[in-house]
Write a structure and sequence with these properties.
The protein is mostly helical. It has 6 helices and 2 strands.
Length: about 170
């Protein structure tokens, strides 16, 4: 699973709407956009940190002259060292960050739901939005399967094809 920048705004909007609707949080109507922005900032920070960790993993592979096929393993190692959630831990990590943001937001009147209640509401929404990104990622990977992952050529082709598919599927902002 991967969180893409084009999904940040609709994801944050869906999360706020569902949390309010389920009465897990109380937000004044005029504060709804601000709460959404609070959640967007958490999601954008996740994307920024994920990119940073990926770059660090690539640098390590390059310095150690390892095979670029080791990128997921090295990235997972770097993420563990930074206590950052990737792969199977992605949803759990993001959910914890979002809950923390809601608790500390000055735009949320009250958080009524316990952490597990908030997680139960947020998890299906996160999975729904991340599934579209997963499908896009798989489609791109399928189209460039002849290239070695982690190389500069692979990265360039991946980004070019992903941007093209995002534009066609209207997944980008």
């Amino acid at each position: 699973m991967k969180l893409m920048s084009g999904k940040v705004t609709p994801l944050a909007s869906d999360l706020v709407d569902e949390l309010v609707k389920s009465e897990n949080i109380e937000v004044l109507p005029e504060e709804m956009p601000e709460v959404q922005l609070d959640l967007e900032s958490v999601l954008k920070e996740y994307i920024r940190t994920d990119r940073e960790i990926t770059e660090k993993a690539r640098d390590m592979i390059s310095r150690q002259k390892r095979d670029y096929g080791d990128l997921p393993k090295v990235k997972a190692q770097v993420a563990r060292e930074r206590d950052f959630g990737v792969g199977d831990n992605l949803i759990e990590y993001i959910t914890a960050q979002l809950i923390e943001a809601l608790i500390h937001s000055r735009h949320v009147e009250e958080v009524f739901g316990m952490d597990n209640d908030l997680t139960l509401v947020m998890t299906p929404i996160l999975k729904k939005h991340l599934a579209a990104d997963e499908e896009l990622d798989q489609e791109v990977r399928k189209r460039i399967k002849n290239l070695q992952e982690g190389t500069m050529t692979w990265d360039a082709q991946y980004q070019k094809l992903k941007d093209e598919l995002k534009r066609v599927r209207k997944l980008d902002e």
